[in-house]
Amino acid sequence: DAGITQSPRYKITETGRQVTLMCHQTWSHSYMFWYRQDLGHGLRLIYYSAAADITDKGEVPDGYVVSRSKTENFPLTLESATRSQTSVYFCASRTSSALHFGNGTRLTVT
Amino acid sequence: AQSVTQLDSQVPVFEEAPVELRCNYSSSVSVYLFWYVQYPNQGLQLLLKYLSGSTLVKGINGFEAEFNKSQTSFHLRKPSVHISDTAEYFCAVSSSGSSNTGKLIFGQGTTLQVKP
Q: pLDDT tens for residues A36-67?
């Protein structure tokens, strides 16, 4: 089925480890986004991408790295995970007028 | 810079009663406005959006919202709620116009609790 697929759905990692969250869309939308969701903060933008090889920082980019070598994939990497990065991460792509979200990855950093 | 304030963190309401979830925004440029709903352990689903035209916008599941530019508000309403409407609701804003990237600024969310 067409849509946005995020993997894994759940991930537990240790402080200091590198972890990559995957996002794949089947629509070939140009714009893609990564948000984190934390209680009391709603969703905050980490990074976004306008097209392959074009990325830009959002509101909370520190500690994260993104890449976009192909239009359909937009992985998010935590280079050295910290406990403050425990969160639910959502990937989204932009339709003509709104964002369509994946089901999220719940990341716990111990 | 843009910001969104959802005035209530939790709204308890009885089944079949009307409900209003309040949202105010701040922006120095013209905006698009959105309401999303999040059911437990799921992603966000678009309820409705205001891009232009009529200020009263109808969405899915019987929800509607009214854009009030002078009050910088975009309140969400439903005349009669169901148990299945229990969820987290998010108001969001983006810049309109040719430079629009589509990136959304979200409010903190409102938990709607529908009681039998």
A: 999 888 899 999 999 999 999 999 999 999 99
CA distance B109 to chain A (A): 6
- CATH number of this structure's domain B3-115, picked from the four choices 2.60.40.10, 3.30.200.20, 3.40.50.720, 3.40.50.1700: 2.60.40.10
Unique residue bearing structure tokens 């910290």: A82
Six-digit token pair at B13? 């309401």
What sections of chain B are H helices per DSSP? none
Write the residue in A4, A42, A104 that is nearest to B109 by C-beta.
A42
Does residue B99 surpass a pLDDT of 80? Answer: no
Question: B84 Cβ partners below 8 Å, 6+ apart?
Answer: B114
CA dist., res. A51 & res. A69, Å (int): 9
Chain B: give the shortest CA distance to residue A49, in Å.
Answer: 9
Q: Where are the domains of chain B?
A: 3-115
Cα(B21)–Cα(B7) distance, rounded to whole angstroms? 8
Instruction: Using an 8 Å CB-CB cutoff, list chain A residues near B46.
Output: 98-100
Listed by start position, the domains of chain A span 4-109
| Closest Cβ–Cβ partner in A50, A94, A101 for B44 | A101
pLDDT tens digits for range B26-84? 998 889 999 999 998 889 999 999 998 899 999 999 999 999 999 999 999 999 999 99
Interface of A with B (CB under 8 A): 4, 31, 33, 35, 40-45, 48, 50, 58, 90, 92, 94, 97-104
Q: Does domain A4-109 have CATH number 2.60.40.10?
A: yes
